[in-house]
């Protein structure tokens, strides 16, 4: 069995190839088991953590025959920090097995896999939902995932200007400096409302508990990509955003209950399940339309799917 490190993953990956692998995966589909999450009791004053296991299996990543299919399982822990205002520490691995024999093939670095998967999923959705001439991207959040999201969106749209907003201006500035040399400008802003008003695409990847994006700030034609705050009670956008936008998900089954951005307005009666236009499978298969007209506001909320995990893991394994 191979051990595939984060460094090895970074060396072979690019978003243009990965997006096509992911698009094929969502078109073909896979079999996914039910995700299991268990609480982890922790002594000495630490809040309890969570251990999540999710799996999928199919043959869309095969090279020659249907027997080259894969089975994949992601094992991930989320352990709250003892320090106030620090997000939970998330770590994990991905086990890839032969779909024919069940033989373990590789153990992949989970964090690197999730970074590429999350960003590519967002960009794949953007290819159906954002305006084709979108050139201004607002990145809300400056964590580890943010640079991946920026590059992924730039792989599907002609991004020329990126603004970064973060609760910590220093973190936003550091990330902006690290991303110099890209074929687009990267700078920071302290005016979140103004930045939302001027953006074609608003991408959020934060751990916020309360909404950051106000519906009053939205302009016609904006596409919102919500990646962070996947706790059932945490939200990145207020009800004004959710009621103005045409809504799309990565997963019909999990996301409406796992993501507070949907669960809260659904529970409060502000939204109904009928307000959800489509998921990514239907978009990729052509069963549902994405953006219907130029001025439409669209929103994509993702919490991660076992399908996408397996697609990315197989993509990596066949290239390392």
TrEMBL record:
This is Alanine dehydrogenase. One of its GO terms (molecular function) is alanine dehydrogenase activity. The lineage of its organism: Bacteria, Pseudomonadati, Pseudomonadota, Alphaproteobacteria, Hyphomicrobiales. It holds the Pfam family OCD_Mu_crystall. One of its GO terms (cellular component) is cytoplasm. GO terms for biological process: carboxylic acid metabolic process. Gene3D superfamilies: NAD(P)-binding Rossmann-like Domain, ornithine cyclodeaminase, domain 1. NCBIfam families: PRK06141.1 (NF004793). Belongs to the ornithine cyclodeaminase/mu-crystallin family.
């Amino acid at each position: 069995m191979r051990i595939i490190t984060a460094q090895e993953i970074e060396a072979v990956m690019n978003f243009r190839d990965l997006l096509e692998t992911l698009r094929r995966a969502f078109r073909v589909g896979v079999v996914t088991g039910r995700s299991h999450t268990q609480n982890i009791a922790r002594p000495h004053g630490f809040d309890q953590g969570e251990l999540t296991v999710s799996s999928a299996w199919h043959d869309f990543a095969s090279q020659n025959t249907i027997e080259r299919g894969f089975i994949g399982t992601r094992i991930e822990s989320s352990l709250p920090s003892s320090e106030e205002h620090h997000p939970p520490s998330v770590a994990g691995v991905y086990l890839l097995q032969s779909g024919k024999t069940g033989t373990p093939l590789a153990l992949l670095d989970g964090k690197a896999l999730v970074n590429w998967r999350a960003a590519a999923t967002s960009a794949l959705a953007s290819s159906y939902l954002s305006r084709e001439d979108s050139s201004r991207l607002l990145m809300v959040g400056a964590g580890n995932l943010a640079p991946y999201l920026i590059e992924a969106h730039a792989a599907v749209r002609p991004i020329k200007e990126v603004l970064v907003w973060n609760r910590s201006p220093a973190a936003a500035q550091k990330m902006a400096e690290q991303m110099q040399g890209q074929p687009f400008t990267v700078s920071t802003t302290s005016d979140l409302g103004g930045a939302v008003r001027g953006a074609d695409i608003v991408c959020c990847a934060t751990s916020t508990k309360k909404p950051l994006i106000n519906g009053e700030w939205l302009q016609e034609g904006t596409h919102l990509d919500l990646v962070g705050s996947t706790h059932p009670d945490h939200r990145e956008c207020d009800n004004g955003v959710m009621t103005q936008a045409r809504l799309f998900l990565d997963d019909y089954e999990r996301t409406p209950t796992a993501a507070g951005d949907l669960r809260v307005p659904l529970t409060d009666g502000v939204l109904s399940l009928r307000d959800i236009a489509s998921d990514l499978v239907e978009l990729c298969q052509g069963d549902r339309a994405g953006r219907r007209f130029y001025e439409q506001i669209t929103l994509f909320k993702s919490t991660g799917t076992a399908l996408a995990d397996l697609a990315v893991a197989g993509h990596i394994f066949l290239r390392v």
